[in-house]
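Exercise (ungraded).
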Amino acid sequence: MDGAVLHLGSGKPTMTEDDALAAKRMPSAKGRARKPLIKLDKLSKHYGNHTVLDGIDLEVMPGEVLAIIGPSGSGKSTLLRCINYLEPPDGGHVTIGDISLNAAAPAGRSELSTLRRSVGMVFQSFNLFPHMTVLRNVSLAQERVLGRSRRNADDRSMQLLKRVGLADKAQQYPGRCSGGQQQRIAIARALALDPEVMLFDEPTSALDPELGLEVLAVMRELAETGMTMIVVTHEMSFAENVSDTVMIMADGKIIEKGPSADVMRNPQQERTKRFLRAVHDR
Amino acid sequence: MSTADVFAILRGLPWTVALTLGAFLAGAVLGMPLVAARQSRILPLRIVAMVLIQIVRGIPPILWLFIIFFGLGMSVFPISPFNAALAGLGLIAAANMAEIYRGALASIHFGQWEASSALNLGRWSTLTDVVAPQAFRVALPSAASYLIGLMKETAVASTIGVSELAFQGNQLSQLTFRGLEVFALVGMFYILLSLPVAWLSRVADSYLQAKVAR
């Protein structure tokens, strides 16, 4: 995969010097007594009688890249969407930085807004705004949420579009861009609000493999800059090579979690082995 | 038929145009709070809006004009035929536009709302920056065809004495006893009025479509 990532042609994402500096990544979270950036306590979610999340406990350290894998219907996407309350959990606690929300109590709008301010999200289906230019897509929330001026927002947007290799698309409409380009724009749009953590919900699942690679390349670079990331994915190579930690979910529970090399190459749980075998056999 | 006869019919044209545009404008504006109430989280508000829309749409337009002009106008407050027709047709247009808006809103992919939430855009910004511009485009063809329908509907105003196209035609046919020619001419004027609306709607739609090619 490395080879493919390096040869993306004209669309190749480039890193600025700032990013390269930031890329001096803090040594991985293991063995260091630092405060987790994200903490989930006994998080649960039900749809009627069906339990989607069954008391999830999870800690994610600053700078950590966590890949969540598992069979469909295991609750991994729901877990991701509960973190920024796109789907409100119905039990447990979500803590991001200094903000803590109790899922048992209804969340106020200002609490939600504070929580979401530190979380960027990338969707499987991109969800760009089709009636706005690419530049406007990236700038809009900066103006509305952060109160940046049009010029400052556009400057920042161009910087980010350059970083994902799409500065030349700024004045186009998203409909004129390929799926891979749209997803990179969506990443730039989320980064524009300077989030502390980025959530990726199967970011390459709607793309054919070739286009998926250019998205994965951007994500890899982002990981190297020290961004905290939680990635729900079916890309086993990303889980194995890019993420620090891998977590396997099934039936709303965490089956196994650990350093990615350990989990991917030497899984302990029978359920994990079965899942990985099924994936490899495909 | 003499030119004088044609001019006699043409005298009705401004009333038809004024009634059509006035009622459509009232409907387009009043339809917004109505659809907001219809989609509200507050149940009583939602029910009131739903019932209101059903009642307004369920009663024939001609009956609404009679209720307003002969009913309210004769007993509660005096009202001119034109204003009565404008009020009645405006009310009906509001209910219909609310339904058109509702359909347009429903067509917006839920991912657009989710992306807006994830980006922390407020409710107002989500509506005005993201949803409404897209819904507007979806609503445009239905709104245009409703505008043409409404234009033809204004003929009922002749029944309460608004001197619009159909009224003038009726007068003239009684004067000349040449109903076929007169009403054919009236019909032609209605067609001529509908053409620019249909054309404009198509131009606007293809412009927007080209911009947002998917």
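Further reading is listed at the end of the chapter. For now, observe: Chain A touches chain B at residues 84, 86, 113, 116-117, 119-121, 123, 125, 127-131, 140-141, 144-145, 173, 175-176, 189-190, 193 (CB under 8 Å). Strands of chain A lie at 38-47, 50-60, 65-69, 91-96, 99-102, 119-122, 197-201, 228-232, 245-250, 253-259.
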